[in-house]
Amino acid sequence: MTARSPGPERLFTVRIEEDGASLAVHAAGELDIATAQTLEETLRHALDGDVASIVLDVAEVSFIDSWGLRVLLRAAAHSRANGDVLRIRCGSGVVRRMLDVTGMDDRLPLTV
Q: Which among 112, 101, 95, 108 has a CA at the least distance from the CA of 36?
C-alpha cells in the first residue's frame, strides 16, 4: 500500500510492506506540516493493528519540521503504551540531524 500527500510540491510517500506479523513502513520526501497527517494516520492504523513489530524507515525523508518530529514522538508514545512494537530507522540523514539538534533521540525507539 502506498499513500501520497496532496500536491506535487509536497511530494511525500508512505509505503507499507508486510512480512508475516511484522510491518515495514517506508517514508520518503518532505515530512512537514502539509504531510505529517499522512504518516500519522498510517502509523496509527499500523499501531492499532495486531502486529509483532513495526519498523518505520525515515532514512529517505529529505526534510522534517516540528510537525514531522511531533508525529514520531506521538507514535513512539502510543507504541510504548501498547506493547512497544515500534522501532525507527533514521539513517544519517536529515531526521538524524533533527534529533541531534533537538535532543529528542532519547525519546524515540531508534534502531540501526
A: 95
pTM value is 0.89
**Residue 68 — left, alpha, or beta (φ > 0 → left; ψ -120 to 50 → alpha)?**
alpha
Cell numbers 506540516 label which residue?
33
CB count within 10 Å of CB 65 equals: 15
pLDDT digits (tens, 9 = 90+) for 45-75: 999 999 999 999 999 999 999 999 999 999 9
* Domains of the chain in sequence order: 2-111 (3.30.750.24)
Look at the chain and count its residues: 112
Return the C-alpha cell found at 37: 497527517
